[in-house]
Amino acid sequence: MFAYLYTFLLTIFYIVAIPLLFLLSFKRKYRQAIPARFFLRRNPPFSKPRIHFHSCSLGETKALAPIVEHFDAVNLSVITQTGYEAAKGYANAEVRYLPFEIFLWWWLRPGKALVVMEAELWYLLFYISKKRGATTFLLNARISDRSFPRYKRFAWFYRRIFAHIDYVFAQTETDKERLEVLGAKNVEVVGNIKLLATPQVSKHYQKTKPLIVAASTHDPEEEIIATDWVMTQKGKSTLAVVPRHPERFDEVDELLRHIARREELRYHRLSENESLDADIVLVDRMGELVNLYAVADLVILGGSFVPVGGHNPIEPAYFGAPIISGEHIFNQKESYAAVEGIEIVPAERLQEALARDSWQPTRITATFDAEKVIGAIKNVV
Length: 381
Description:
Layout (H helix, E strand, L loop, with lengths): L1 H23 L8 H7 L11 E4 L3 H6 L1 H4 L5 E5 L2 H7 L5 E5 L6 H4 L5 E5 L5 H9 L3 E7 L6 H6 L1 H8 L4 E4 L2 H9 L5 E3 L21 E7 L3 H13 L4 E6 L5 H15 L3 E3 L10 E3 L6 H5 L4 E4 L12 H5 L4 E3 L7 H5 L1 E2 L2 E2 L5 H5 L8 E2 L5 H11 L1
């Protein structure tokens, strides 16, 4: 009964939201995802009933690679356009956008297993998959300190979701305890799946000076970092700025051009000049972060000097790159705990940290039990 009431309420919400969805579909960020997810444009059901993996965006989709590669053919659904592009890179995957929940009643087909990454707790995805014969898994499950009180306020709803999840693989013991409070069963701690991925370098950059990478930045982090870099590193190193969201490339370009003109520095966009032969470079192309991490002398992790929650430090740590981070890491505490040597400073002390002549390399110290996860999935298919 609850599933039908839930669908009815979502349908009302969907009808009311159609004008907004239509307007948002013209934004570059949503140009593919919204028509596919909310209007099923070029987004038919999967052609065959394979194992169904689901993730949200770029990072989660890339992290699935070491699991997906153990199966001959899989179905893979995503939420975002960056996730879709990453998913298309899997030769053994049929890729779709996951439709809005009300469409899942006729979009989902019977299958043997559903494997969902992290916090993608869509009630009807689990409910319908379970009803149609799938064994359901939640992989890399975690609940941050900041979000746990919110989850507890809606514990009645999450208990209904977890009633349809057969197995949960959690990142830490703390996550396990929190998930069980919300009704999760058969919870095992296996670590963070992102520890398993091997970053693939697709381009080998040459550098003329030490390279400092400002990675996955948000507004106003570009200005904070560039200003402190000018005060401490001008003439000594190259600053490569990599905004988190592609739709901000032009905005950040305008800011960096202004700083470069004012300081009489050389500047270019990577899309216009594929080199690091400048004082400041705007990395305005997707998929370049790993290539830059491979040659970085220092990585400044964005999303941490403003209350965004931080971004994954594991990729730069794979190359041993020194990492400076801000204090706002509430979404990435488990990932940070897996890396030794990260220097965490408030924004007002970033200049002091940048002024040094050298920084401490990082090292990954945690593990992930892939065999347990792969074995559990294979046991039901």
